[in-house]
Amino acid sequence: MNSKLKDRFATSILYVIAGIICALLLGIIGYVLVLGVPQISWNFLTAPSESFSAGGGIGPQLFNSFYLLFLTLCISVPISLGAAIYLSEYAKNNWITKSVRLMVEVLSSLPSIVVGLFGFLIFVIYFGWSFSILSGALALTLFNLPILVRVMEESLKSVASTQREAGLALGLTRWETVIYVLVPTALPGIITGIILSAGRVFGEAAALIYTAGQNAPALNFANFNIFSQESPWNIMRPAETLAVHIWKVNSEGVVPDATAISNGTAAILIIAILLFNVLARVIGKYVYRLMTSS
Question: Could you tell me the superkingdom of the organism this chain comes from (predicted)?
Answer without folding.
Answer: Bacteria
